[in-house]
Amino acid sequence: MKQKEKSKNFLILGLLLFGITLFLWNCTLDENVAEPQRLDLSNVKTVSFKDAIAHFNSKKEKIKQKRAYAKDTNNKIKITPDWNSLEYNEIAYTNAQLTTANSEINRNGKYSSQLYFINVNNHIRNLIFTIWKEEVDSDGNIINGRIYFNDLEGKFIDGYRIEKGVFTKRFVIKTQYQKASFLPLFLLFQEGGDCWNTDTLKYFEGGVLDEVVIVASGSNSGGGGGGDIYYSTGATGYGNYINGATSSGMNPNGGGTSLSNGQVTSAAAAILMAAPVDPDENGNCPDGYKKNLATGKCESICTGGKYYNTTTEKCECPEGMTIEEYLNIQLEIDPFKLLEIDCNQIENWQSLAQHNAPQSVLDKVQDLKDNHEALLGDWDIQYLNDAGGTIVNMDYFAVNITTLPNNPTTGQQFTANEFLDYFRRNINDFVDGTTFEPYCEISAICQQETDLWNSNNPLGSIIKLDIPINDGVVVCAEYTNEYWRFMTMEAPFDNSHPVSGTRQFGIEQNTNGSHNIYVRGVDRFTSNLQENVSYAISLGNPFFGADNLWESFQEKTKNFVNQNDGGSTTVTPVHNRPDWNKVKDVLEGRRPISDLGCN
Questions:
Q1: Which residues of 392-418 are buried (b: 16+ CB within 10 A; e: fewer)?
Q2: Are 523 and 393 in contact (CB under 8 A)?
Q3: pTM over 0.90, yes/no
Q4: Domain of 405?
């Protein structure tokens, strides 16, 4: 056994020496780095948070499928983005912004990494940016260090050295004509860890990467504004272009002895924008590109603002997403950066989100469970927090009444509370598409529910809503002269209500003396499946049915008031639909409303 191991070691050593010999003979460093002389930056665009996440997930899935097909278990890179850290960064030479997200990468050493996204010529460039700060000043600005660009599979793309606050050298890969001879054997001698990141480890430096000077001594000049950027041929002209990105108007301190994070980011973006898309060693362009025979470069096959989706292998609009992709993105992205919350209503929505049924209503529901069971559905209140929908609906529909109408029966003008009571007892005259009736699916309780709903205090009454496709049941869980509240519930023969939450019907006086009769709700789809189906049916607005119902309430109520000697106009509806997982702490009172941007 020992003899076998000894022979094996000699064999590896012999192969290694042979590989090194081939490497020394056949590997040369290309000192003349080919740099573009003209950059058209008019087609550089910002990548939205939504598109960035969709693009990354698409690329990640394709890489996963490729590895599974190739049965590749080596060199696995693990990228864990923090989508809550997504931000736009101002950069030089263009009005477009660089989209970045902090990321955890299984990379050895004291490095920090981010995902970068920018759209160049309708193609989203997405890669890993890693920085190692060898020396920093008292403010944390980088004096000496290194930056690296890797693709999402961990392959080295580009790298640069920073010395005294200036990008001075570029890391380049030695051209290997006998590629199979050196690198694989070289990697055999590394111990532990993932070897995708060897471009920055000490074993790799001097082995494959070399440095090319990109700035002349004391040189640090930049380009101009947007459009075409020109710089002189050769590495030093390219270096001036990069360093110029650190001394633009938004980074006035460029050219000093250290660089801020913003200056490094701007320079890195300049590198991304300048980098041409080159064919691979076999002359093939990446997916979504075709080779321009005149220039030898790869050009996007997509036009008209579309980008290439590597999963569907089609040119698609940035907004062209599936329902599943959209919902997943809403769960990932921090809604505080994306949503406009109606601050005038947030405290009212909080009250509804935190509403619990009083004990008398809970006792009634328990009594129904004990004495009126049925095969189809049980008796249960559906609480907002128990729903499965990813999005919470917060809405407000109102009619502003400057003059209260007359009672059509008596001819006398309603008071505000009288009009609300009339509206409740005749609610079906004020809506289209849905009817509200006392619950009579179980005949034994039909009369008691009818009498209770039509009484002066309907607390605890159970109402069935005849909703197209999916009926629902609600219970009156609070009642005052100014408003009442319905909570959705599961009931026999009707199963669960399509949404879970609380809705308030009321009338309130404004500071100018007018009144608003309104419907205000906070709810979520009871199941994620119902939400997805509603998305598909509505082509993007899963709450379209509810919106139509409450808009009909506005129109019919306005007409009733105006036709009975009153004066009214509809109020512009308010509906905010953020991701529940992000705003529930505010709605439930565990975080201040200021977290939503409200004072």
A1: bbbbbbbbbbeebbbeeeeeeebebee
A2: yes
A3: no
A4: 337-596
